[in-house]
Amino acid sequence: MRLMIEPQRTARVPLRPLALLALPALLAFAVAAACAPDRPAADTIVTNAKVYTVDAARPWAEAVAVKDGRLLAVGTARDVARYKAATTQIIDAGGRLVLPGLEDSHVHFVSGSLNMAAVDLAGAKTLEEVRSRIRDFATANPQAAWIQGRGWMYPVFPGNMPDKGILDEIVADRPAYMRCADGHSSWVNTKALELAGIDRRTPDPGNGRIVRDAKGEPTGALLEDASGLVSRLIPEPTFDDKLAAVRRGLAEAARRGVVRVHGLGGEFEDLAVFERLRQEGALTVRMTAAMWVEAPGPTDKDWRAYDEARARCHDEWLAVDGIKLMLDGVIDSGTGAMLDPYEGQKENKGKLFWTAEDYKKAVAAFNAKGLQVSTHSIGDAAIRLSLDAYEEGQRAAGAADVRNKIEHAEDIAASDIPRFGALGVIASFQPLHANPEPAWIGSWIENAGPEREQRAFAWKAVLAAGGRLAFGSDWPVVTIDPWPGLQVAVTRQDLDGRPEGGWLPQHRVSLAEAVHAYTLGGAYAMHREKDEGSLEAGKLADLILVSQDIFDVDPHKIAETKVLLTMVGGRIVHDAR
Ligand SMILES: [Zn+2]
Question: Considering the entire predicted model, what is its pTM?
Fold first, then answer.
């Protein structure tokens, strides 16, 4: 243990030969004179800051002291200065805003990281933009056997669906595979269809559809599991490919101020990548990884895999925790499971990926073991089934505090909104998914129709009915950068401020509520609220220093926020001061 003496005081203690014999006693006296004897010296003090703590009891402070990776004190600059020693590193925040590190409650970290080295179509608003991004990538990567990309959205295409002809004009010599931003559909060229042997005679797979033209010819659009007919041909990235990619992903997360993520697909399967990084001390984002389980439910192999992984990974950096299930598709392509048919599609209510019976049985089995279940449920029918299953699951869990989550929850039936609060089910929303940019949300609105549109992404209603929110990105569906998400959460407008007054502004949340959902709300959703999510003495020293006071700027400028410093466990992992 280090001596806890303020340096200027020690200097005044006369060290005469006689006194040396009594040094321990003298030091004890010096400590008592300088500060309380139990006051340790901080490793780091961040001071001259506007600290928004997310601690309801004391929301604002001026400084924090850090020792051994945890917060020693949070308070006024004067109070915190008492923990200063000669060795203390002082960070002058220059009066800027400090927040708890942000938590992303829904990511696919490996695919997000790998995606950083593919065509990025996210945010492309016109077909011309889509074309030029693919063309540039293909030209810049002549050695790539496949041209892969991700991030397109339906409305940029004529008829809201992509077509192989457009892609053939840009890439004819190599197979091309472009995933939709929502991850539920893909767009391929003729070369890829040929390689996969997909033609007019190919039947649709169980949970998928090969989109065909009037003559029955595949158009190059593949929905849900039909994408697998092509994607399975793409060479798998190696362990080293993934390791290199995840290193880039970690740097990107740190640059955006993200300190903890809930990995809901891919992380469990690639746990070895994260274990290697943890071993190296290179893991700069804390990771909760859920195991993905397919219908009809867990096998013995699943249980074994879970127990083995959990035994290896259960600390504050890397923890296997909980299960991810997927109950339906998405509204944008008419595959989300709805109680009533899609607008203008009398025959189509989407489809559940599980039978109700199997799904309920699986949820109860996981909950009985005390495991949290996070289910992708987007349509109102899928959400209702999840709530029903969670109600029974909580009974199976007994006293265990499982905190089941519904991922996305995009269109909740009005009568189901109060059930989130009543059952303690967490609504895990991704604010950027409600970006009212027409190229993003147009087909969602068309397919839902006017009545169901009114309850789209009902963040505020869930909160008002006593429910809990956890916000995230679903990276790589959208950027892992949380700042545009925060802006959309409070404005319900696209990043250019449209539409005027906001899309369904009754579902907006306040900035404090949005920050909570990106911090303490996420920590709670990952069973980490005792250690994370707010800046309070004793919690982990995970914090960020940002370029502007988001509580004091025009809400339309929140997305411009730059993270100047990210600290995780007392260590600076990003520094752009
Ligand atoms: Zn996801």
Answer: 0.85
